[in-house]
Every structure is written in C-alpha cells, then in structure tokens.
Write a structure and sequence with these properties.
Elements (H helix, E strand, L loop, with lengths): L2 H10 L21 E6 L2 H4 L5 H10 L8 H13 L3 H8 L3 E6 L9 E5 L4 H8 L2 E3 L7 E4 L3 E6 L2 E6 L5 H10 L10 H8 L7 E6 L32 H4 L3 E9 L2 E8 L13 H5 L7 E6 L5 H6 L6 H12 L1 H8 E12 L11 E10 L2 H23 L12 E5 L2 E7 L1 H4 L12 E7 L2 E5 L2 H11 L7 H4 L13 E4 L1 H18 L6 H5 L11 E6 L4 E7 L14 E5 L2 E2 L5 H10 L6 E8 L2 E8 L5 H12 L2 E8 L8 E8 L32 E2 L4 E2 L22
Antiparallel strand pairs: 1-2, 1-8, 2-3, 3-7, 4-5, 5-6, 6-7, 8-9, 9-10, 10-26, 11-12, 11-18, 12-13, 13-17, 14-15, 15-16, 16-17, 18-25, 19-20, 20-21, 21-22, 21-23, 23-24, 25-26, 27-28
Helix pairs in contact: 1-3, 3-21, 12-14, 13-14, 18-21
Length: 714
Amino acid sequence: MFPQLAAAVVIASVAFSARADDSLARLVPADVGLFVELQRGQDLLLPLAEAQVWLTLAQLAGQPALPGDTNEWRRYVEQTVNMPPEEAIRTLFAQRVAYAAPGPRRTQDAVVLCQPASNPHDLIARWQARPLPTSGRTPVYRMPNEVGLALRGDVLILGDAGAHSMFDRIVTHLDDSSTPSLASDPVYERLLGRLPPNPDGVLFARLARPTSATTSAPTQPASAPATRPGAALLAGWPGLLRDSSSVLLALHREGRLLRFSAVGDGPTSAAPGDITPADLVANLPERTLLAWAGPIDYQSLSHAVDALPEQSVLRVAYQLHERAGTLQRLTESLSPAACVAIGVVDPGKRRAPAPPLPALAVLARSRAPDATATEWRSLLHYTLDIYKLLSLNVPGAPQVPPVETLRIADRDAECVDLSPLVAADAAATALGEVQLCWALDGDVLVLASHSDWLRQILAARQGSAPRLAGLLALGQREPAPQRGTIFVTQPGPIADLGALWLRYFEQTAPAILDEKWWRDYQPGGRVRLGIQVSVDGERQRLRVRSVTPGMPADGLLRPGDEIVGCNGRRFATSRPVAELHRGLAHRPNAAWFELWIERDQSARPCRIPLPFVDPVQILRRIVAVGRIVQRVVYSDDVADAEGPRGHLAVELRGQEGPLFAFSLSPTSAPTSGPAATVPATTAPVTTGAVTTAPITSAPVAADPPPPPPAAPPE
C-alpha cells in the first residue's frame, strides 16, 4: 500500500518518540530489514507528494517510476482511501506513522502503520473496507486495489495483501505473542542505547541479512552489487556503510535544521595518524557544490586501471609509469588524506551564452611536496608524450597543445588544454574548454579540470575569498581532525543551477529532454539480461538454462524458471525469443524490464533492473530534491569501543532566496563565427530561484546529432 508514498517516509525519517512502550516497533517482527517511525511529521512529508520529488523517492527506493506515473499514483491513492494524497498525509500520518519493509532495497513489499487523527473505525467505514475471515485476534479487511487493512487498537496497518507478504507477516506476528518484535531485538536495542537521548526520529536499516534468512521471491529489484567500482580506492567510505551490518539514525530537530546521529554495529578501527581531511574541506571555496574528503588507498589504483580497455592511452601510460617507478615514487610522497570537490566556472573561451559549468578538483596532501611536484610533472608530461606518439598512427587524431606555465593566485601552475580531444571547436559549444591544471599550495597538490576552478580554490585556501568552513559548522560537532570521512553538498544551489540548464536545453536542444533519445545513446548500446534459454515454441515460453554471474538477471532468475511473458503480457506466438527482444526494446521503463515467470508451479512477476543513464532525468531529480533541501553535511566521529559513529546535518530550504546567483555567460554573443549563425532566441530564462538575461544565441543546433542506431537486444 502506497509504496512510493512510504518511500517518502523513509527519506524524511523524522519525529519519532523512542520510548519502547510508545514505539510502533513493538508491532513488527524482529527480523524486519527497514523500519522508520515518525510523530507529527506531516509538515515535512507534504512537500514530498510533489510529482518530481515523488519520482525521486520512488527511484531511491528501488521502484520503477515514469513521469506519467504520478497521475496514476494519485488516482491509486484516491481510489484506495477516498482522499487525495495531501489529505491522506494529514489524516493518516497526523500523529504517528511507521514504515516497515524486508530491506532497504526491497521496499516494494512494504507496510505502513499509522495512528490517524480521526477514529480509525470511522475511516474503515468511510472506506467501505470489506471484513475478511481470520483465525486470529487482529481484524483484517480488504480495500480497493487489493490492499490489505488490519486494525490493532488505534493503529491501522496497510499493505499489499497476499500470502507471505510483509503485511501477512505482521498480522501473523500480532496474533502470536511469542514471536519477538523489533522493539526487543538485541541489535536494535543496543544501537538505540548508543544514541543521544530523546530523539525526535529514528531510521533503522539492516545492510546485510543473515545467511540463514529466507530468500524472498524474485519480485524485487536486485540488490546493489557487493563490489562497487573503485571501492578499493576510496578507503574512506563511511565505516557505518563499509563495516556495519545494521545502522540506526536518530534525529534531533531544530526548526529547519535536522541533526542526525548515526551508529553502526561494525568493528572499531584505529584512526590513521596522518589523516586530516577537515581543513581540506573547510578551505574550499564557499560556492563548492559538493565535496568529499577522507583517506585514499593509492596502492589500489591498479584495480581501477584494470577496468580500462587494453588499448586505452591511460592504461598504456599507467603500465609504462609503473615500470619506470614514477607512480610508486609519487604515491609514496603523498599522504592518504585527499579531497574531491565540484564547483562551477564560466568558460572564458565560450562564444555563446550558456549556464556555468561544473568543474572537478582533486586535492592530495603531500608528505614531501618537492618530490610530489617533480613526480607529478614527470607523469603528466610523459603521458602527453605517449599520446602524441600513439596519435601518429591514427590519421586525423586531434593534437593536444603544449603545457603552459601560468601564475594563478600567486602560485606557479601548469595547464594543458584538452579541448581538441573533446570537440573540434569546443568554444562553439556550451563546453567552452576542457583543461587539466595543477599547482602546489604548501603541502597540498591541487588538480583541477579548469584554470578558473583552480584559481577559486587557491584564493580560498589563501584566505582572500569566502570559504566553506561555515557550512561545516552546521554539523552537530566539529569533524574530528584525525579521523574519518567528510561529505558536504549544497542541493539548493545545485538545483538552481540545474533548473537553469534545463531551461537552456528546452531552448537549444529539446530532443535530449526525451528519454527515448537516451535509450539509443547509452554507453555500450546493447541491452543484455545475462540469461541463456531454450525455446518451447509449442507452449509459447522460454526455459532458463543458465544465468551469467554479475549480469542484470543474476540473483533474480535461476535455471529452471520458465519465462511466459513480459511487460504485463503473455507470449502470444511460437517465437517467444522474438517477442522477448521486442519487449526489451520497447519496455515501458528503460531502467526496468518486467518478466512473467513460472517457478515451483506458481506464476509471479520479476522486475529486472537494467543499467540505464538518463542525465536529464537525473538533473530533474536533483532539482526536485534541491527545492526541499538547502545544505547537507556528514562527518565520521572518532569511533568508540562499541562501533562506528557519524553525524549528519540537513538544512531544509526556506523562502530566503538562492544562496548564490547563477547567470548565462558570456552575456552577449559575437556577431560572427559558427555560433552566430544559429537563430536567436529571446525568451527569458526563469528557474524559480534564478532569473537571468534571455538567451540571445544558441551554441548548439536546434536538435543534437542523432544517436548511433540501437543494437538488437540480447
């Protein structure tokens, strides 16, 4: 019942009284994998019913959602509880609401428990819920859309009815007083005892299930892969997520500021003596949109390089540097403390108005600054020489200009223009230019993707420009200087910039706003499920013979399963392979493919998540979140003897206006050149929080070049 609306509860995770006798945790089984409880949190939940925010939360909860689904979702809610979503939130979630699911990535089979503002018996009568026969003490009802309803005292329990569902498990638990509840679970109790007293909210999640846990039916999306790309490189992944099997967050609310304390049950690790990430973040520019700081295991670089194609210039250069010992000398000169920061720049060479561009920088602390500068300079120049040598065998290969020596913010710097590798005339596009710049500031090596971003960072580090230190003050306490991971982001400014880019795309490249364009423009092109099948044309079905490990169907399908349909329809011909290919190519949701399978003499749906990236949809989701959340800060604390601990501060967005102003640059277009030949557009650009001058010329054609033809799916 309300799976997407319930996901909103998960993200909000506010207003819960932790007293065991009041908590709805006493009504759910002890082995629940995700539990959130709230009290009087409807003021934070109401904004989450907005269409784009709802889609964002549904996606985060691992559920398929399309832009057109919002109307269907509203209709579903109104049919089920006879009230619009906003009224449902005010009525059902007015006092206390809880959300329970089998796990963080298994939220489709979820249950909502709530103490409504009005008499629950009056609501049951209003809904005309049909009572069902039951052998237990808990009254059970059937509502429209096959929604189950149970009543325990003044608590309503709603969920998808069906055998072995989460709703069925909770009803069974309520009727059997001998089964333990989450409120008495030792892990839950121990974590709750480590948190500050009297929290306003909690969120409990099991990140790893016991090996003896019953495997659920394959109706849920696959869990995230156990191995993340580059995970070995980032040793500073928060210990709460890296080492713990269960985590618990507690909230203390201060107006628009939500302060979370987080604890995990992972092992305590000793703090490295030379990790000081806090000042790397504090001395970044105030307009930094996102930053991460923590320890990096440079010795694990080889794992990331191994994923590159064998003929990649970077892989060839890495192997040569490794043989020469350059990489070893460079990494030995560096401390593990490092920082990654994203900011914004206005490309100076861009000839037509466009929004500011994101820029990336990496800051690495050095134990031996002179050695670091020498080895990095050698690595950079030698890599460029390798490219020039290899490009001699490729007719028409773009040439990279020589490295320039510059003086940026009173520091010696080097910069190489990589624009020819990206576009023949990058200045005629919104990109403007792509650079690789670096400088040594004291004991910190700074690498940046644009000279202006390098200038902003150096100026902030020298104290001549506003810094990010004020954002760190939002945290519950100052980040421990000798420990852990720091993550900061400013969703409000990111949303303002993203809205400006969306308006820009509407005027200059409307075709890329359609998901269909990105379906044919995916890296790799071809869609593979990773299954081998045998065909039973007479019975109009496919029998799974094997499943390739690591592919989308791994963990969801298994040998012996019979595929009888897809996209909500059974196969209708003696050529089910062709029907499967057509269904995969024309699936309603690009990120999911729904099969209908028969296993153990029962039919069931199986949604298979597929690798799909739609940058425009991602941008829309970011804008939606940034309309609610202004700034976020997370930092690890020094772990105590009981396990890792962290602090998260979330500042909600108010009505005071944007933190930073973003506008198009340059402010006017030239009278000649490639960009000036594009018809002018004079409509003003309004983004809600940002209003800029009109776009007077487009730097790209009205429609982007067509993508390569789609390869047939496998």
